[in-house]
């Protein structure tokens, strides 16, 4: 976990929305929208890791892709190092691409099986005209060594590597252009549990070595606690809580965050047997038809009448601890 000494904002997201139109009929008339991301705001400081957690379908991956302008934005603003990226033409976005990269979830799908490892890692260098011939080959070997792979295996194909090794290849490709900011989109979700810690430790090491900033997207609360400096909790396209990692795990204010905490097993059978689990009923509602008021009220164990009527305000209850809940400061629950 990186120590954030200077609170210099590298990425700033304000009121970000990404809605996908729902069309119908021969003329594809718009009849609604899927609100994948529905007005979220956060900053990523230089040198820190911001964890973004939530259930499947909460909009995490869409938010990560929108921040990198891999998805067009419906509304809101995205700034990188003080420059507004929201409506930049793609030609100008390409100029900033080397500074912003992504590690994808599934290493089996994100690596071209017909390309050698050297070609995969070298592709960003070729695309952005970085180095030539022997210089480029040396850089590829350096990157392989940096992520813990044998540089002599550069001419092998992805199918000759294990899942964890493939993800290391994906990480090597992401850092090839010396980026400052990387979106890690559930980079360990497709890996064996025994390999997950190795990949997270590698990301941690690279952050210290290269001064990287991460947006680390995951549904694994225990792994996020290990790597993140701050954590933002997303539910149905909206942020419900955000705080420093210790404050969020030790003093969660939102009932959804508490439910996520209670789902993480404790490696002590005595404590595990005596824990009070928060069991959420039902499934996450459809982002095409979100409930009125607080989007969590249909599953919330402490919901009141007000919750189904009024959208809770995104407020700072304590320094650096933000929450959107009508009763977050109520000591009764």
* Biggest sheet character: 8 strands, mixed
Mind telling me the C-alpha Rg? 21 Å
Instruction: Name the poorly predicted regions.
Output: none
Order of helices and strands: EEEHEEHEHHHHEHEHEEHHHEE
| Class by SSE composition | alpha/beta
Helix tally equals 11
Count of strand segments: 12
Report the end-to-end length measured between terminal Cα atoms: 32 Å
Shape: globular
Q: How much of the polypeptide forms β-strand, as a percent range?
A: 15-25%
How much helical structure, as a percent, in the residues?
Answer: 25-40%
* Order of strands across the main sheet: 6-7-8-3-9-10-12-11
Overall pLDDT:
90
Structural write-up:
The two termini are 32 Å apart. By secondary structure, the protein is α/β, with parallel strands linked by helices. The longest helix is centred in the middle third of the chain and has 18 residues, at 193-210. Helix content is 30%, strand content 24%. The strands form 2 sheets. The protein has an 8-stranded mixed sheet with strand order 6-7-8-3-9-10-12-11, sandwiched between helices. It is globular, with a radius of gyration of 21 Å. It has helices spanning 60-67, 90-96, 107-110, 117-127, 133-146, 163-174, 193-210, 221-227, 245-250, 255-262, 269-274; strands at residues 9-24, 29-45, 49-53, 75-80, 83-84, 100-103, 181-185, 213-218, 230-235, 238-244, 315-318, 321-323. Strand 11 and strand 12 (321-323) form a beta hairpin. The protein contains 11 helices and 12 strands.
């Amino acid at each position: 976990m990186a120590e954030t000494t200077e609170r210099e904002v590298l990425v700033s997201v304000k009121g970000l929305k990404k809605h996908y139109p729902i069309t119908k009929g021969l003329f594809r008339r718009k009849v609604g929208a899927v609100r994948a991301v529905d007005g979220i705001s956060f900053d990523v400081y230089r040198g820190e890791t911001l964890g973004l957690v939530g259930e499947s379908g909460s909009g995490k991956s869409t938010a990560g892709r929108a921040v990198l302008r891999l998805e067009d934005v419906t509304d809101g603003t995205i700034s990188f190092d003080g420059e507004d990226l929201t409506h930049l033409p793609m030609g100008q976005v390409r100029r900033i691409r080397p500074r912003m990269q992504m590690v994808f979830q599934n290493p089996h799908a994100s690596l071209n099986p017909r390309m050698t490892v050297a070609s995969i890692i070298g592709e960003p260098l070729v695309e952005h005209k970085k180095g030539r011939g022997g210089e480029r080959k040396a850089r590829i070997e350096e990157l392989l060594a940096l992520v813990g792979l044998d540089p002599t295996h550069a001419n092998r194909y992805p199918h000759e590597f294990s899942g964890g090794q493939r993800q290391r290849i994906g990480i090597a490709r992401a850092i090839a252009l010396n980026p400052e900011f990387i979106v890690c989109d559930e980079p360990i979700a497709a890996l064996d549990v025994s390999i997950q810690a190795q990949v997270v430790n590698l990301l941690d090491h690279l952050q210290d070595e290269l001064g990287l900033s991460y947006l680390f997207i995951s549904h694994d609360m225990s792994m996020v606690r290990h790597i993140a400096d701050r954590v933002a909790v997303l539910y149905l396209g909206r942020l419900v809580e955000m705080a420093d990692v210790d404050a969020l795990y030790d003093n969660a204010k939102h009932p959804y965050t508490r439910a996520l905490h209670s789902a993480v097993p404790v490696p002590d059978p005595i404590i595990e047997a005596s824990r009070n689990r928060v069991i959420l009923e039902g499934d996450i509602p459809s982002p095409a038809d979100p409930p009125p008021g607080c989007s969590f009220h249909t599953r919330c164990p402490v919901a009141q009448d007000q919750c189904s009527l009024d959208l809770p305000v995104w407020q700072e209850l304590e320094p650096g601890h933000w929450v959107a809940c009508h009763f977050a400061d109520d000591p009764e629950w």
